[in-house]
């Protein structure tokens, strides 16, 4: 596959470029004429993707991949974080996780694969298998703190994705969810001792490998109990760590697939020279370099010729990349004619599976037809509040007497009593997936505790961990386990008014906080 390539051409096979890189080099045609890279990152213009946002004029859209494949001199691996079908729905990962059916988990993965098939994408940078163990990092993709469930759930998703001929990626190695710093902005950290890590994160990764997961993404995360010393003067994050990438991931855990870095432009790994930092990550065991500058190839070539990087490191990377290409070539991607309808039907099922009635001690649910309802929104931007207003409108359309209010901005009991006077039910809708910070929605969180408990309902469309963290003593709490949209709101309203039963059950144990 790589036999007739020059050393530089072989090195280019390890580089995965984004649309910004193509833009600054004159667009796909001019770019591929000069740089025969091995991979391209697709920023889906139907979704506000980070890659698209970072490019002033994003080279994305329906013909982007076609252009890249047409102009490239070598077969490309096209990857993406996400890529919805045009006008398609957002499936709910949390809704899928809130049931006990492994066939549903597999189906979720299969639907993600169909979305990739639709766009002719070979490789999805998912799933995120991180565990939320300590509540410091309220990342919305973390659905559990239970390593056993995590392994069972995501193993099936990996199998479902790869059943559609799409490479799956387990991330973010060595694992976020124990620390309050987001590695997009500064180095993250896994704070566990090594033995506990092996029983949790280590266990989940080994289970992904048993399921056949072909790719792992390393991230800009420090793991002090395993290795704290910097290597070659670089920060001791996994991106720059032979000990974590080669010794632990490829050695101890036995991963035989391809290792891809997280984006090599993030604040968590940046030292001021992205090309040299990208070369260092290759030296430390990464096989594919996500968003590396093309100048990285020159630096790696120099390091190989000088003996700083052994030729065996490049040979190992190419062998692992070849496995990905062989998988793609052996599995023809076929998109069903009615792909949008298939994914839409499954998405609606995930909305129906998600809602979970955590507590109903005050008997506030189901809502009664003659209830006069005050809906209080809680979001950190206007778009999230507008989504709560849409939810309120759906209740009104179902025949309920509903008033919508943005926020609850007072901490005085008499003022709150005046606001809720005359209402039978006060429905506080959480639509803010981030931790509480000093904004209007943090004030609403404070004030909500002063609302009369006999008629209060907490409806959480946010991270499921928030309900236990911020509303532990409330008598009526619903975790929807789905993101708020008009389609998911319809499913949730069916549960609130008693048309359908609550069947969801989030897999949250809190066992590492006891």
Description:
The chain is α/β, with parallel strands linked by helices and 514 residues long. It has two domains: 8-340, Glycoside hydrolase, family 3, N-terminal domain (TIM Barrel, Alpha-Beta Barrel), CATH 3.20.20; 354-496, Glycoside hydrolase family 3 C-terminal domain (Rossmann fold), CATH 3.40.50.1700. Helices cover 40% and strands 12% of the residues. It has helices at 7-12, 19-24, 28-34, 50-54, 64-71, 93-97, 102-119, 147-162, 194-210, 242-252, 274-283, 296-305, 311-330, 339-353, 382-397, 413-420, 440-448, 465-470, 486-496; strands at 15-17, 39-41, 77-80, 123-124, 169-173, 188-189, 215-218, 221-222, 258-261, 289-290, 356-360, 372-378, 401-406, 425-430, 456-460, 476-479. It has a six-stranded mixed β-sheet, with helices on both faces. Helix 17 (440-448) links the parallel strand 14 and strand 15. Helix 7 packs antiparallel against helix 14 and helix 8 runs parallel beside helix 9 (194-210). The protein starts with 6 loop residues before the first helix and ends in an 18-residue tail after the last helix. 53% of the residues are buried.
């Amino acid at each position: 596959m790589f036999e007739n390539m020059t050393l530089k051409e072989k090195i280019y096979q390890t580089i995965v470029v984004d649309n910004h890189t193509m833009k600054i080099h004159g667009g796909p045609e001019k770019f591929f004429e000069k740089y025969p890279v091995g991979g391209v990152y697709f920023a889906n213009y139907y979704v506000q993707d980070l890659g698209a946002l970072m490019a002033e004029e994003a080279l994305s859209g329906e013909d982007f991949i076609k252009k890249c494949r047409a102009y490239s001199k070598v077969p490309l691996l096209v990857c993406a974080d996400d890529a919805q079908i045009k006008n398609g729905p957002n499936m709910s990962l949390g809704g899928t996780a809130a049931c006990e059916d492994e066939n549903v988990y597999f189906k979720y993965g299969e639907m993600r694969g169909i979305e990739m098939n639709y766009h002719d994408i070979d490789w999805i940078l998912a799933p995120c298998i991180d565990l939320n163990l300590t509540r410091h990092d309220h990342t919305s993709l973390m659905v559990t703190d239970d390593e056993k469930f995590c392994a069972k759930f995501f193993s099936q998703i990996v199998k479902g994705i790869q059943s559609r001929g799409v490479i799956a990626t387990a991330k973010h190695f060595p694992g976020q969810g124990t620390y309050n710093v987001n590695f997009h902005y500064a180095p993250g950290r896994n704070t566990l001792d090594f033995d506990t890590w092996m029983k949790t994160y280590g266990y989940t990764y080994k289970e992904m490998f048993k399921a056949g997961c072909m790719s792992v993404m390393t991230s800009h995360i420090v793991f002090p109990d395993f290795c704290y010393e910097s290597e070659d003067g670089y920060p001791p994050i996994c991106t720059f760590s032979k000990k974590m990438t080669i010794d632990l991931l490829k050695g101890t855990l036995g991963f035989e697939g391809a290792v891809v870095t997280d984006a090599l432009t993030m604040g968590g790994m940046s030292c001021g020279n992205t090309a040299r930092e990208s070369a260092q990550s290759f030296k430390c065991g990464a096989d594919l370099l996500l968003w590396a500058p093309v100048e990285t190839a020159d630096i790696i070539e120099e390091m190989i010729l000088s003996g700083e990087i052994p030729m065996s490191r490049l040979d190992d990377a190419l062998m692992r990349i070849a496995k990905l290409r062989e998988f793609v070539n052996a599995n023809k991607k076929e998109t069903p004619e009615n792909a949008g309808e298939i994914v839409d039907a499954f998405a609606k099922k995930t909305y129906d599976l998600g809602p979970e009635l955590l507590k109903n001690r005050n008997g506030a649910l189901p809502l009664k037809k003659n209830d006069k309802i005050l809906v209080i929104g809680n979001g950190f931007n206007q778009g999230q509040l507008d989504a709560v207003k849409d939810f309120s409108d759906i209740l009104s359309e179902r025949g309920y007497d509903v008033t919508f209010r943005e926020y609850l901005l007072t901490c005085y009991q008499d003022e709150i009593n005046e606001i809720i006077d005359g209402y039978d039910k006060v429905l506080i809708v959480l639509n803010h997936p981030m931790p509480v910070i000093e904004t209007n929605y943090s004030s609403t969180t404070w004030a909500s505790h002063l609302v009369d408990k006999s008629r209060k309902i907490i409806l959480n469309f946010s991270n499921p961990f928030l309900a236990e963290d911020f509303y532990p003593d409330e008598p009526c709490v619903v975790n929807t386990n789905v993101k708020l949209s008009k389609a998911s709101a319809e499913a949730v309203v069916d549960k609130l008014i008693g048309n359908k039963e609550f069947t969801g059950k989030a897999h949250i144990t809190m066992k590492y906080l006891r």
